[in-house]
Amino acid sequence: MNSDQFLQAIRPYGLIPVIKLEHLEDARCIGKGLCDGGLPIAEITFRSEYAEAGIALLCKEFPELLVGAGTVLTPSQADAARSAGARFIVSPGFNPSLVDHVLRTGTVIIPGVSNPSQIEWALEKGLSVLKFFPAEVSGGVRFLKAVAPVYPQIHFLPSGGISLDNVREYLALPMVSACGGSWLTKAGTAEGIAAEVRKSLNLVRGVADV
Ligand code: 3PG
Question: EC number(s) per UniProt (predicted)?
């Protein structure tokens, strides 16, 4: 998968569930809830010790799910994620050695940016799909409106502080392809997650490309 294919895969949904696994077995109900709710995407963060095993479990038990790794800080985490089956790697900031490493492996890398210098470092690496993090405290929609005319080739995936209250404002912006958020998988049961996912998809349907 390359970054264009990644964009095509996420655009119809407009949402990227960002998940910290508190227990490995939570992966099963999260995978089921996401698939039943109609949002087959999961970014499993390396904020917990279960990231690698959780990615492997989701890839094995839910082959329809597009599984990636989030909060990747080091090349060895990226390698572990890729070996476990992750098809995209997300980092909170722009770490040049991590970006170079992941590019060499051919996996999609989506580094986080929150200012023009970081955007230009990404451009220099040939990247055009970037996480905007932490979105709300970095200026949110106003930041994106200010930088988009300068960098029209960049597709942003805002994350951090996004919820049902503000997600439509982000998705209405042409430079935003999807928003990341942890709210989607907090319910604790597969049924609860599927319900939250359906509610969220209904809310964003009709905004921009979604
Ligand atoms: C991320 O890593 O993308 C964010 O921490 C998710 O932020 P949220 O918990 O505010 O949705």
Answer: 4.1.2.14
